[in-house]
Write a structure and sequence with these properties.
The protein is mostly helical. It is built from 13 helices and four strands. It starts with 20 loop residues before the first strand and ends with a strand. Keywords: Membrane, Transmembrane, Transmembrane helix.
Length: 357
């Protein structure tokens, strides 16, 4: 009986292969992939900077358990409340802080400050409760500025406050195990303000450095630092004092003031500098801050022979590390061209038909 089974044409050639057109469709490239990796690297650098800031806070907290620190801080607060400060609003602020201390009790107020400091230390080390703790840190440093009532120690609190401001602007808590914040780069304007706020700090330092008798003030500062330094740090300060006497202390002071002014100007212009110039500026500012820190008696820690806090120069170097990690965010992220599926299908229509194999 004749077979009525229809033989597929493909069976004459072994196995059927569907018709294929070239070019074959490919996966759409990800032009933002390198930028994404750079963002993750910047977030990682900022996390480490935040952790180092937390280590500094932990170190300060340990110093503040010094037996004489509470009495020392209370005496400073009382003096700030009673002293005649030139600015009336400063006098009113410091007086109000002291009245609050007196109302709730000095010991209770100091215990509250230590508790806030411990909470901030935990938050900085882990990224927990940020950005709320970042705002608390700003308020805490503002309160400490009111407690200290002016002077070098009060100016250091401004540097610490700027550290919290940079953490908030640059979203430095992203990616920590204790934070569920979404991973995203901050807006370019926020990063610019981080640079500009740091520039304002350095501009005020430059203004102070250019005041009259700058050579005499530098000589007195080094001499005072040497009296509170110990060991090889005193010898290191002596080297700079000898250098100042050799070239003229006035000339050395002018050089230092010029460097501070250039750093301030560079920070203001950072968004428009090339990447290499910006890196040189930030590395130079960090090294200069560390050098300044090394010339503080007792590394800026043992102020007046009592446990105080790490010098603002050391925190200044940390600020430059934050800016260095975030410098690529000064420009807006590149916008990838939208994928036009219809255009891709149209391009496929002109492919080569290779038929059946």
């Amino acid at each position: 009986m004749a077979s009525t089974q229809q033989i597929s044409p493909a069976s004459h050639h072994g196995s059927g292969v569907p018709k294929v057109r070239l070019p074959l469709p490919t996966t759409e490239p990800r032009p933002d992939a390198p930028s994404r990796w750079n963002d993750l690297a910047a977030m990682r650098a900022l996390r480490w900077a935040r952790i180092v800031f937390g280590v500094c806070f932990a170190f300060n907290l340990g110093l503040h358990f010094h037996p004489e620190y509470a009495a020392h801080l209370a005496a400073i607060a009382r003096q700030a409340g009673d002293a005649g400060i030139q600015s009336s609003w400063q006098a009113a602020l410091h007086g109000a802080v002291w009245h609050v201390f007196s109302a709730i009790g000095v010991n209770e107020a100091l215990a509250l400050l230590f508790g806030i400091e411990a909470l901030l230390t935990v938050g900085l080390l882990t990224g927990w409760a940020f950005p709320v703790l970042g705002w608390l840190g700003l308020a805490y440093e503002g309160l400490m500025w009111g407690v200290l009532g002016g002077g070098a120690a009060s100016r250091v609190t401004i540097v610490y406050a700027l550290g919290f401001a940079l953490l908030l602007l640059l979203r430095a808590w992203q990616g920590s195990a204790w934070s569920d914040a979404a991973l995203r780069r901050p807006a370019a304007l926020r990063v610019r303000w981080a640079f500009w706020l740091t520039a304002i700090l350095w501009a005020t330092a430059a203004w102070a450095a250019w005041q009259p008798s700058l050579g005499m003030r530098l000589s007195q500062s080094l001499a005072l630092a040497q009296t509170t330094a110990s060991g090889w740090q005193a010898e290191w300060i002596a080297v700079w004092m000898e250098l100042g006497h050799a070239m003229g202390m006035e000339l050395l002071a002018v050089f230092v003031a010029g460097v501070v002014s250039l750093i301030a100007l560079g920070l203001f212009l950072a968004p428009w500098l090339s990447r290499s110039s910006r890196q040189a500026l930030l590395w130079g500012g960090g090294v200069f801050s560390l050098l300044e820190w090394s010339l503080h008696g007792g590394w800026g820690v043992w102020t007046l022979g009592r446990g105080d806090l790490i010098s603002g120069a050391a925190i200044g170097a940390l600020l430059f590390a934050m800016l260095l990690g975030a410098q690529d965010w000064l420009a807006e992220p590149p916008v990838a061209a939208p994928f036009d599926a219809q255009a891709r299908r149209a391009s496929d229509q002109s492919g080569v038909d290779i038929g059946r194999l």
